[in-house]
Amino acid sequence: MPESRTAPRRTRRVVADEAPLARIDALTFLGASFVLALVSGLTVPNPLRGWLSDGDRRQRLTVTTVAAAGDAAILLLGGGRRPLVTPLTGSIELERADGRTVLVEPVTVAAANVPPEQLGMRMRDAFDAAARADVQERILGRVARTTGTLSDAGNAVAALYEASRERLPAPTGGGAAAYAAHVDGFWRVDGSSYYVEGWAFDRDAQLRSLRLVTPAGRRAELLREAFRYSRPDVCAHFGVPETERLGFIAFIELPEACASDSGWVLQGELSDGGGFEIEVPSATDHPLAVRTTVLNDVELDTGDGRLLRTHIAPALTRLQRRFAASVTVEAVDQYGTPPTDPEVSIVVPLYRRTEFLEHQLAQFVHDSEIHGADLIYVLDSPEEAARLRRFARHLHELYGVPFRLATLSENGGYSTANNLGASLARGRKLLLLNSDVLPARPGWLSRMVEFYDANPRIGALAPKLLYEDDSIQHAGMRFDRNLECVGEVGWWNEHFYKGLHRRFEPANVSRAVPAVTGACLLVDAELFRGLGGLRGIYVRGDYEDSDLCLRLREQGRESWYQADVELYHLEGQSYPSPERAAASRYNQWLHSDVWRTEISALEGVT
Amino acid sequence: MAERPTVLFICHNHPSVRPGGAEAYALELHRHLVAAGDVRSVFLAKGGPPLAPAGRVHLGTYVAPVDDRPDEYFFFTEEWIYDWTFGTIRYDKQPYTKHFRAFLEAIQPDVVHLQHTMFFGYDILREIKNTCPNAAIVYTLHEFMPICHRQGQMLRATDDTPCMQESPRRCNECFPEIDQQTFFLRKRFVQSHMEVVDRFIAPSRFLGERYVDWGLPAEKVTVEEYGRTPPAGEAAIQPRRHRDRFGFFGQLTPFKGLQVVLEAIIELHGASAGQDPLLAALERAAAPQPASAGGVEDAEPQPHVRVHGANLDLQPGQFQNRIAELLERAGDHVTFIGAYDHDDLHAYMEEVDWVIIPSIWWENSPLVIQEAFHFGRPVIASDIGGMAEKVTHEVDGLHFRANDPTSLAATMRRAATEPGLWERLHGGIRPVYRMEEHVQWLSELYQQLLNGKVVAHA
User: Fold this and answer.
1) CATH number of the structural domain A174-320
2) Which residues of A touch B180 (CB under 8 A)?
3) Which residues of B touch A469 (CB under 8 A)?
4) Is A229 part of the contact surface with chain B (CB cutoff 8 Å)?
5) Which among B93, B126, B169 has CB closest to A469?
6) DSSP assigned state of A450
7) What is the pLDDT of residue A108?
8) DSSP designation for A323
9) Which of A105, A127, B152, B156 could share a disulfide with B143, CB 3.0–4.6 Å?
10) Which helix (H) or strand (E) holds B173?
């Protein structure tokens, strides 16, 4: 789009004490929105502005000085929010921001335009290595400032860096070397962050900097930031004691998105001015694989939570966000006539053990209140979609209970499945229900709604849940000290009176409790949505219920246990896989870390 | 009640395919109703494998007449997968919602009287309610299959002792491969479907009480004995010095306790476990009295057992071997008759003085007891469950400690030797409940259910 502004052509006025004309020696385009210009003879300080003229059209340019040394300067010119117009046929001039013209020989763009590599090489003549590295990062920051990405400038920026950067030698010397490093694994977490594991050896404590560098020249310092741990195998190779913590783990977050997974290097800078670099393998972009790797590192935390807080949690939080964003509702099947204006929407995630659909319907058939509720099943194991969608038709034909079956595009996990189910809900209240929960008798839903409506302080309400042998599975939730937590001492979620007889008297009192289970949880729908639903930071499900209750508490809402309503909860007894166990340990720590203050207050611990 | 209301009987088997007590009674009931003419009676039995070799033949239908009569049908289920733990057809509910529904819509029953849901699945109850919402649904309970996964016997698989109470834990102890939660789900599933039943009929008080304990509403459970058409023929009672002939009549399953009788007769004749049967035979040969095969009067009582029953070939190999071994050791003291025709029962009854019913499970209301009484034979029964209820000790029979060959041997000795005992017990036998009365009672029940009233049978 032409013309950012029409302004009368200014007459060039040469002021007597002004410096002689400066010259644009060369320029290159970084995408469609930026021009990088090598300028000589520029002695006037910032701020500057520029004009790109082509016949009658003039486009205002922002000017950023990214380097100045002696006679030479590097300027980054941008079209503001607009791409540059007809650049190749125009000419560029610069002026002082106060409007007094700075003399720059007008240069037709075509004449000065060179490919980015050439400009990069010319930068080598004018600036030293350190200066060039800084220049590169300034360019990145400026180019990505509005969108957080390099967008179409990426290739040019990378080519510029490739030509202008200082290459360092590879480390040598084998086991006798004075210094060496290696990247064992490199994974992409999301658009602008990565996770790296490797080791670095520095026999005489010479290293001043250890950094990953992107193909575009962005540096990520590891030396002080990374988590260091013992690598006996590496120590043995270099003949140093095993107490040397040569391994490193780091979560890297870049200021701007990085499009390229390959071409990274790991550089070391030594106190004597020397340095080295090694190639970094291409980053693996496989979210599930990264998540497994990161979860396996949970074990390595030394008990102060630093690894968890600085590296693992940020990586997993971003991964979880990435997972959640990719899951959508792929299909919704309606069985029977949905109720108009339902009070309650019942959301039931189904994962793998889909036979519970049949068992729930065989109980719901007797309850007119469920026939009148907005019942939504969410299939979170979509590989079973074809079979289950067909079988759901059969079950509806036999039982007649109206419901919807929403199929997800992929496995999203407990919080995503519930949140997506809630997004389809039409009721004023939400009842989150596990698939392995069966009512003891009909009429439970209205009793819960009555209880909830009678007490405006309630945010979350859950009833008594029983095991198959009629003993108590849930009668409200509390928190207990967890001495086995990774990181610092944390908190377990415990159920009051779990395992005791259903008629145990203290368990038969309805009351406010620190938190309640998500297996059967009634919450106002607007309240739930206002909080953003269940939080997806926990890996594979766990603690979302207490997390919700504690967030409700922050809003001044209580969690209540209702003793006179009973359902059965056939809590799974499967022993966790190693992956599940690792996720559990992380979730425990995360929940404890996020809520340490609040839980301590609730449980009366200073 | 409407003119000529329609009653639909549902059963797991037709007696022409395989013999069995419940199906024999059910068919008898149906044919009696057909003969009487006041109701239109239809009998639907599960047909085809595994009980019969041939299954469904015609495309587009899952029913076929049993023979050339318009009131008895097979329903074929072999093409679907039957889950024995839950009692339901898996993965496909169209057997109920399409195929069985078509039959219901054609027959339009006013009363559906189930004898069993085996092979059909409990879901059939829900389908009946859906399609025939105004029909009265009656369910006769023949054993404990809805309660107990061990073939409805309520007999612990851990040690073969009778079980009074199911629970997820106890059932898992009997079947460790099935977890407690599955048993919980099973019970909820079965009871959900049973909720549509208007009336349960329990042929014995004992059985009815177990079902009420299990969770059926007491007001829905009525105790009512099986009505019987008397078996054909006479079984004369001739004077004998010793009433020492004992008969066992029944399916040869481990639960029916034939092994207890065989061990008792062995013990009675002194050949205890471990004694060489050949040695025992030589000892007898050395003694003056010859062994008796019954029928010939002896100076001393010679207890002898006659075994009548079928389906030994269907039992686990271990049991078949054990019976074979016991028969061998019992030698001449046992006559193995095997399968028999029900019409010939009178002839077999004539050859015995006593009928032994030694079941190790509770039993409900064994038809054999009624048959024995009809022929004037006192009954020696295990002292548990329906047997102890239907046979009154020292009145029309004797009890012995269940599953205890020594106790049975002592009882048999007493039965064979005590003067006047047999006559007194024979005199104590009351008339057998007849089919006519039973049908009368049932018809009143159907009517009252259809009218929405509750019947309590004195």
Assistant:
1) 2.60.40.10
2) 468-469
3) 167-169, 180, 184
4) no
5) B169
6) H
7) 78
8) H
9) B152
10) helix B168-174
Q: Cβ separation of A359 and B94 shorter than 8 Å?
A: no
Which tokens is B356 given? 């032994």
ipTM surpasses cut 0.90: no
How confident is the model at residue A606, as a pLDDT?
Answer: 58
In chain A, the residue whose alpha carbon lies closest to the alpha carbon of B179 is A573
CATH class for the domain made up of A327-602: alpha beta
CB within 8 Å: A398 and B91: no
**Distance separating alpha carbons of residues B346 and B369, to the nearest angstrom:** 14
Name the residue type at position A236. A
CB distance A120 to A132 below 8 Å: no
- Is there a contact between A226 and A249 (Cβ–Cβ < 8 Å)? yes
- Give residue limits of the domains in chain A: 23-163, 174-320, 327-602
Q: Do B130 and A400 touch (CB under 8 A)?
A: yes
Pick the closest to residue A106 from A89, A96, A92, A86 (CA basis): A92
B357 Cβ partners below 8 Å, 6+ apart? Answer: B248, B250, B257, B363, B366, B368, B369, B379, B380, B381, B382, B387, B391
Q: What share of chain B is helix, strand, coil (3-state, %, to 5)?
A: 40, 15, 45
Cβ contact (<8 Å) for A469 and B181?
no
Q: What is the pTM of this model?
A: 0.85
Element (H, E) at B258: helix B258-268
The size of the A-B interface in CB pairs under 8 A is: 52
Q: Does A341 touch chain B (CB under 8 A)?
A: no
Sign of CA dihedral A235, A241, A243, A245: negative
Give the residue extent of every domain in chain B.
6-229+434-457, 245-284+299-427
Task: Concatenate the DSSP letters of all residues of A511-567 into one string.
Answer: EEESB--TTEEEEEHHHHHHTTSS-TTSSSSSSHHHHHHHHHHHTT-EEEEEEEEEE
Question: Would an 8 Å CB–CB cutoff place A442 in contact with chain B?
Answer: no
pLDDT of residue A575: 64
Alpha-carbon dihedral of residues B118, B122, B124, B129, nearest 10 degrees?
A: 140
CA dist., res. A548 & res. A537, Å (int): 12
* Region of B157 on the Ramachandran plot (φ > 0 left; ψ -120 to 50 alpha; else beta): alpha
User: Whose CA is closest to A547, among A590, A577, A603?
Assistant: A590
Is some CB atom of chain B closer than 8 A to the CB atom of A574? no
Q: What is the pLDDT of residues A571-583, one digit of tens each?
A: 876 666 777 888 9
Can you identify the CATH homologous superfamily of domain B245-284+299-427? Glycogen Phosphorylase B; (3.40.50.2000)
Q: Which residues in chain A are contacts of B125 at CB distance < 8 A?
A: none
What's the gap in Å between the CA of A442 and the closest CA on chain B?
A: 11
Among all chains, which residue has been given the structure tokens 């169209």? B94
A466-493 pLDDT per residue, tens? 999 999 999 999 998 877 777 777 888 9
Strands across the sheet with B397-400, in order?
B334-338, B304-308, B245-249, B354-357, B379-382, B397-400
- Matching CATH topology for B6-229+434-457 and B245-284+299-427? yes
Q: CATH 3.40.50.2000: does it fit domain B6-229+434-457? A: yes
